[in-house]
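Tutorial, part two.
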Amino acid sequence: MKKVQQGFTLIELMIVVAIIGILAAIALPAYQDYANRAKVSEVVVAADACKTAVTEYYASAGSLPGDASTAGCITDATKYVSSLTVGTSGVITVNAQSTGASGIDGKKLVFTPSASSGGTLTWDCKTTTDITAKYLPQACR
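Running the prediction step on this input gives:
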């Protein structure tokens, strides 16, 4: 009688291991980019709350605030934001926390308001310390 094969051959197992290795080599950098974009998005969200406060102050006072307390911004540090400041003319600067993420650590995002003729504010987003462009939201690139 013929013996029935009872498992995988060595070559079949090696092929499976090679395929898993190739997939891991592709997936890990993609996941790291995703994680870094998520960290930058928290920096942007912290600024968004302050942008709303500055816009409300501008709507009620007719001028831009000179500091965070006048604007009513929360400046508490978070896991990914080390500080948030509001400078002259309502310019918001958000410093990223050092978390070990290359391309982000210790970098800054600056949001500059400009008043339009209709009395509304538009915001310009720039990075003063060169956060890697692929981590920035589309509006800041």
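The beta strands are 81-86, 92-96, 108-115, 121-127. In part three we will examine how such features are distributed along the chain.
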